[in-house]
């Protein structure tokens, strides 16, 4: 990819919003842009952690697999997010896998160059530390919720804490881009598809939300926020 195109992309990437042209140029010269198809793997669990990734387009799911092959979906990343931060782990091996949920385009930087960049721009160290801390806190909270909250509570919490921040207001309604299937929501809440469908159907009957395959319409935000 031409350097000016990469610079445009980096200017629209929140993590790099405050960099100088010289610092952006360093990133451009030390990254490779790649595109992969749906269900293709960016990296495997236990593979060497020798690079970091900046997602430009598409969605990437981060999953952990048990020795028996059971998948625990950790998160689904949107454009503008960084992943592969496990290069900072002392073991130097991935603890999870990154797989394309749909066709995805991302920049790849070697771990050695990322470490140079963090030394070059000390402000990024704080941003990076906060990013890792935030992801660990979210994962810890999910694990606690599995043992402390019911399926319904976890699904409602997903709507309020994960989906609502992405909503756009149209008149009196909030509209959420419904880009996750009930199966995916079930994985993210450690429930099951039937339970997700049941909760959504109940909310629809109560006039709190309406939904189809493309959008979730929040018709009564106040009641939704009061539900537990």
UniProtKB/TrEMBL annotation:
Residues 149-222 form the HTH crp-type domain. GO terms for cellular component: cytosol. Signal peptide: none annotated. This is Crp/Fnr family transcriptional regulator. InterPro entries: cNMP-bd_dom (IPR000595), cNMP-bd_dom_sf (IPR018490), Env_Response_Regulators (IPR050397), HAT_MYST-type (IPR002717), HTH_CRP (IPR012318), RmlC-like_jellyroll (IPR014710), WH-like_DNA-bd_sf (IPR036388), WH_DNA-bd_sf (IPR036390). Residues 15-118 form the Cyclic nucleotide-binding domain. The lineage of its organism: Bacteria, Pseudomonadati, Bacteroidota, Flavobacteriia, Flavobacteriales. Residues 1-228 form the MYST-type HAT domain. GO terms for molecular function: DNA binding; DNA-binding transcription factor activity; histone acetyltransferase activity. It comes from Christiangramia fulva. CDD domains: CAP_ED (cd00038). SUPFAM superfamilies: cAMP-binding domain-like, Winged helix' DNA-binding domain. Keywords: DNA-binding, Transcription, Transcription regulation.
